[in-house]
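A common beginner's mistake is to predict each chain separately and then try to dock the pieces by hand. The better habit, illustrated here, is to supply every component at once so that their relative placement is modeled jointly.
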Amino acid sequence: MSEVYFVKFGRHVSNIVETMRRLLKATKYDERVTQGELVAIKMHFGERGNIRHVRPQIARTIVEFIKKKGALPFLTDTTTLYSGFRRTAVDYLETAAINGFSIGTVGAPIIIADGLLGRDYKEVKTPGEMGSVAVASAIAEADAMVVLSHFKFHVSFGIGGALKNVAMGCCARKTKFDMHAVAKPEVIEERCVGCGLCARHCAYNAISIVNGKARIDYNKCVGCGDCVAICRFHAVRMHWGGGEHAERMLKRAAEAVYGVLSTFEEGKVLYINVLTDITRLCDCATSLETPLIPDIGILASYDPVAIDQASVDLVNSMPAYNPKKDGTIEYVPPGQDKLKVFYPEIPWWILLEEAERLGIGQRKYKLVTI
Ligand code: SF4
Ligand code: SF4
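With all components supplied together, the output reads:
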């Protein structure tokens, strides 16, 4: 059974720096890194305009903790498939600075792991449908890694936690395409008002407006899901083929995690899930969506499966506020399955099950409250 360390937020908790120090000390990660080692801190700096991403103070506390050992931490992420301000390393570094991340604020350099245009990677063989995974160079070449994830719901994966952060976030575009390619969006015509927002955002020119409705050209669509996130009328959804497409995508994601982790020695990767600002959309979104769940706290573990399972269980133990289309808010009581409320069509657990089958971790865990 894997241990998952937990700091619960509440009136008794003093501040984020002290809290992070306490959590990191409990993990004893400083005993696992040595002088001169390159330590990637893998995180998402937020899309330009997003305010729900992990705060710079949290990253800075991790940087200081690692530097005390004489190791060389750097913050990192990869470029995106979709349009927005993270599609090239130049865009992304500017966005990171706007969102508060720079060497001045976090105390370590920021390196975009897959290069200027998402083409820098090391290919590793994997036991699955994809057969190999393109691990972003700066991650493949690092000696150790801290996977710092904002835990929230996600339009394609159901949940965005440690496993998603490694699967999609540590791979170059080649593997991002391979994962997304099995799922495609569909337009719900009765909801579409023909505003054209999705067409303007689609980086692959796959959407046109025909007779006042969005139409997707599946020869061009790569399945990135940007149109699902951008539509303000909930008129685009992922088409999961009765679950078959979702299952394939989630299994491929587990294969990607396997590939990324194969570039590290055992015990060199620490996972931290921040359970605050839990929204329906991920940090790639720019809408000012209100959080659905009260802030919970921060988790840390050496097992990415256990930490994601613990995060889901904690979310389900809390109440939620579900904004409805008519402007009312539905109260969802503690104990009710929140994934069934927010993403009933996504079999999110397949990623955890497949990761467990591949020996990446286990869903059974022991919560250690500190
Ligand atoms: S953004 Fe939504 S409502 Fe607007 S055209 Fe696209 S699908 Fe239709
Ligand atoms: S149509 Fe396809 S490629 Fe374009 S934004 Fe939607 S999912 Fe991405």
